[in-house]
Write a structure and sequence with these properties.
single chain; 237 residues; mainly alpha; Arc Repressor Mutant, subunit A; 2 strands; flat
Length: 237
């Protein structure tokens, strides 16, 4: 952003590709030759450049206004609002808001923002920066999976296999059809990011043969980590 203004996609395209403004008309003319979708691409790049982004920002503003009504002025420190930490966090917040479609996730992003300005944390070391990245990058399905795990740890105790885990998830959310290995990919990503644990790993799909373990073996469970519980609290506020 320059001087608080949102860069148009056409500007970003020029800067990223090195295409000079004088060639923009030629580029638009070339794109228009793409069958069926050419005019739609031109519309997005050149005619309605920031319409969707502006809509998302406006919705975020309304959510943030409601959140801030409940914050006492005494908890907001002017020195922090003038700091480099707040500047960096603020810029990242608004960039992030333009990349989020879900109102629920946008509300969670606003919760992170409010918590950040109250705690005055160092932006580069702050957990709020990490959580903001989670909200932007997690698939909506991952948010559903997290909510499922958070509310179902009792039935996921000693679940042992991905077959059992996936079956329980489908009972929880049967509306969205998801491939079993897509489900495993999302769960593995959540575990790699430290928000859930499978306690050493579940047996893969289809491995139903009996396996001999010694007396120290414990059937793996699926649980939320401390980090995961902190993160999901922002979705529940």
């Amino acid at each position: 952003m320059e001087n608080g203004k949102i860069k148009l996609p056409s500007t970003i395209l020029r800067e990223a590709s090195g295409v000079d403004e004088m060639y923009e008309t030629m580029l638009a003319a070339s794109i228009s030759l793409i069958p069926t979708i050419g005019s739609a691409i031109n519309e997005i790049l050149f005619q309605f450049p920031n319409k969707i982004q502006q809509k998302r920002i406006n919705e975020t503003v309304q959510i943030l206004k409601e959140k801030m009504k409940n914050i006492e002025n005494s908890k907001i420190y002017k020195n922090y609002l003038e700091s480099d930490d707040f500047y960096d966090f603020n810029m990242n917040f608004w960039r992030s808001s333009m990349n989020i479609r879900s109102e629920e996730i946008r509300s969670a992003l606003a919760n992170v923002f409010v918590d950040s300005i109250i705690s005055k944390e160092n932006y580069e070391l702050s957990i709020h920066s990490l959580f903001m990245g989670f909200l932007v990058s997690f698939s909506p399905l991952q948010i559903i999976i997290l909510s499922f795990i958070n509310s179902s740890e009792n039935i996921l105790n000693k679940i042992e296999t991905y077959d059992n885990f996936f079956a329980k998830y489908n009972l929880y959310d049967g509306k969205i059809i998801i491939d079993q290995y897509e489900f495993k990919y999302y769960c593995t990503d959540l575990e790699n990011r430290g928000v859930i644990s499978t306690q050493g790993g579940l047996r893969d799909f289809g491995l139903n043969d009996s396996i001999l373990y010694d007396h120290t073996y414990l059937e793996p469970s699926v649980t939320m980590t401390k980090l995961g519980k902190k993160f999901i609290n922002y979705l529940k506020k």
